[in-house]
Design a protein that fits this description.
single chain; about 260 residues; alpha/beta; four-stranded antiparallel beta sheet; about 25% strand; globular; binds adenosine-5'-triphosphate; binds magnesium ion
Length: about 260
């Protein structure tokens, strides 16, 4: 059974076609880097996979179940692209991380000692425990991202979807972040769908690429990617520095072309 199965999916915003005839399947434990230009349809695709948008054509299955019947959302963690914290919600970092537990609680939704310990443990894992008592909206973008990751991980998802999570991170934090999600993928077999523009960085962590520009330009393993003419031709104009990097130094090829 595939974790995500998408078949012949098309989606338009009004008359504007955003995704055309998309088909792919993700297996449990896959770590897929989703790449493509701005406006290529990446966020739209994952919103459909998360049931937040409904495709006009095609089908989506999650854990083998049609999306229209799927109700086990606690299995899926989602870190969304836009995050606009407001001073109208003066929650601490700890309170925001702990909020993740709400979705699986029955009414009345109260927190106990175990919940608090769980929240602290997960904050330790994502590296945001040192500022647990600070107001969330006063944290830097990168610090907020670690808190939001803790909130997402607290339910132990089987599938984690991350939409440009590293944009606000400095290079050391970005490497830590990728190492963290990579170890979650390896140790807990969490399926990862990582949308990113950090192409050169993620090559060493992911094992699959999905390249999206309204259509699927490429979907498959990174080994296959490195020899794929269409993907390379497409990527050349998109990120010239990546291609330079690939060709300039065989040893540093992030996608394993020469391995
Ligand atoms: N709510 C909306 N209403 C109308 N059009 C939209 C809406 N959201 C996205 N679009 C359009 O759909 C296309 C795909 O957008 P999407 O946000 O999925 O791209 P993306 O690949 O995530 O881009 P980015 O890398 O900039 O995040 C774009 O042309 C965009 O303008
Ligand atoms: Mg997007």
């Amino acid at each position: 059974m595939d974790t995500i199965e998408v078949k012949n999916l098309s989606f338009s915003y009004g008359a504007a076609l955003a995704l055309e005839n998309i088909s792919f399947a993700v297996k449990q434990g896959d770590f897929t880097g989703v790449l493509g230009p701005n406006g290529g349809g990446k966020t739209t695709l994952i919103k459909i996979v998360l049931g937040l948008l409904k495709a006009q054509k095609g089908e989506v299955k999650l854990f083998g179940k049609d999306i229209n019947k799927f109700d086990d959302w606690v299995k899926i963690g989602y870190l969304e692209q836009k995050n606009t914290p407001s001073s109208l919600m003066p929650l601490t970092a700890f309170e925001v991380a702990r909020l993740g537990l709400l979705s699986s609680k029955k009414l009345p939704k109260t927190f106990n000692k175990t919940d608090n310990e769980t929240a602290e443990n997960i904050m330790q894992t994502t590296g945001c425990l040192p500022y647990k008592n600070k107001l969330f909206y006063e944290l830097s973008g990168g610090q907020q991202q670690k808190v939001l990751l803790a909130r997402t991980l607290i339910n132990k998802p089987s599938l984690l979807i991350l939409d440009e999570p590293s944009t606000a991170l400095d290079s050391a934090s970005r490497e830590n972040f990728f190492n963290l999600i990579s170890s979650l993928n390896k140790q807990n077999n969490i399926t990862m769908l990582l949308i990113t523009h950090d192409i050169a960085d993620i090559g060493k962590y992911v094992n699959n690429f999905l390249i999206l520009d309204k259509n699927i330009i490429f979907y498959g393993s990174k080994q296959k990617f490195c020899g794929d003419k269409k993907a390379e031709e497409y990527f050349g104009p998109y990120t010239p520095h990546l291609m330079d990097h690939l060709h300039a130094d065989a040893k540093s090829c992030p996608f394993g072309r020469h391995q």
